[in-house]
Amino acid sequence: MTRAPGAQLQPVPGVQYREATEHDAGAIALLHADSWRRHYRGAYLDAYLDGDILTDRREVWTTRLSPPRLNQYTVCADAGGDVIGFAHTVFDHDPTWGALLDNLHVRSDVKGHGIGTRLLAEAALKLILCRPSESLYLWVLDQNEAAQLFYDTHGGRRVESTLRGPFPGGGRAVGHRYFWPDPSRLISKSH
């Protein structure tokens, strides 16, 4: 979905933003696998993307969301019990760049309604509460132009581009590091 620059986002009704629990692992894995299949073609090998990545993602998210969850935070956008987006942040990830926003995915049919913006803001808010002086960064793959535009729009500075991988199942691609020295700037964008 594309919209004109500066167009007002219309929220999806009834979305709640809450910390993910171990009970969300399956729904998050499903959304994560779908997002990889849609956006990572050409970086991840097709044989991997077309295979059983759902089992792989379910194992990853079951581990990540099992207590105790130290130095990390996963927020999900919940619409009537359906997880329609999530963001996962790892605190203290890099001494130079700070916390890593390791995942931010929104279900394809609800993109363009501010869910990603709000998830980014919720991740930044939790980071500020837990690590007030820590910065935030992420990696986005070169072929995911929509995500690059999203992060550009939200004040991320592209500070590095490098060949990334090998990824799960094989494959490599150029990735761009985006950086927010002051994550508090992300909070005002969602409210």
What is the secondary structure topology, with strand pairs?
Elements: E1 15-19, H1 25-39, H2 46-49, H3 53-65, E2 72-79, E3 82-94, E4 98-106, H4 115-130, E5 136-141, H5 145-153, E6 157-164, E7 173-180, H6 185-188
Parallel strand pairs: 4-5
Antiparallel strand pairs: 1-2, 2-3, 3-4, 5-7, 6-7
Helix pairs in contact: 1-3
Structural key phrases:
alpha+beta; 30% strand; 191 residues; 7 strands; globular; disordered N terminus; Aminopeptidase
What does this structure look like?
The protein has 191 residues and is α+β, with helices and mostly antiparallel strands. It has a single domain, classed as Gcn5-related N-acetyltransferase (GNAT) (Aminopeptidase), CATH 3.40.630. It has six helices and seven strands. The chain has helices spanning 25-39, 46-49, 53-65, 115-130, 145-153, 185-188; strands at residues 15-19, 72-79, 82-94, 98-106, 136-141, 157-164, 173-180. β4 (98-106), α4 and β5 form a beta-alpha-beta unit. The two termini are 22 Å apart.
Question: What structural category characterises the helix and strand content?
Answer: alpha+beta
Summarize the helix and strand pattern as letters: EHHHEEEHEHEEH
- Unreliable stretches (pLDDT < 50, length at least 5) are 1-6
Question: What is the percentage of strand-forming residues?
Answer: 25-35%
CATH domain class name: Alpha Beta
Q: How many H/I helices?
A: 6
Radius of gyration: 16 Å
